[in-house]
Amino acid sequence: MKDEVKGGSTTSRRERARQTREKIVRAADEEFRAAGYQGATMAAIARRAGFAEQTVYFVFHTKAELLSNVIDAAVLGTEDPIAPEEAPWYQAMEAEPDPVASLH
To answer: Is the dihedral of CA 52, 7, 21, 31 positive or negative?
Structure first.
């Protein structure tokens, strides 16, 4: 049985929060690529994502934290992200005895 919370389930609230985070991360990725880290602003990222600037700050707190999430999404993906050391590519790299060969 789902926990009901004022007009909707906690599941749908979590899903909306996840979608909000993903939209902001996608917009931030685009803005960082277009303007660079120094040139990108939280306001510009918010506009790209279609949210208020305060929402971006509420979710990520700082531009550095947002950049960290953009990098995580690029490395780990956004669908069921797993820690790098658990990823097949990392395990294959670790299993390779030749360090140079492990990078190919």
So the answer is: negative
Residue 8, beta-bridge partner list: 5
Rounded-to-integer distance, Cα 12 and Cα 81, Å: 20
CA distances to 10, 28, 63, 79 from 51, in Å: 21, 12, 15, 22
- Radius of gyration (C-alpha) of the chain in whole angstroms: 18
Max alpha carbon distance in the chain (Å)?
57
50-98 residue pLDDT tens = 999 999 999 999 999 999 999 989 887 777 667 777 878 788 888 988 8
Looking up residue 55, the CATH number of its domain turns out to be 1.10.357.10
Q: Residue 15 sits in which domain range?
A: 4-79
Tokens 């510009």 — which residue?
44
Residues 6+ apart with CB under 8 A from 20: 51, 55, 59
Please state the pTM of the whole predicted model. 0.69
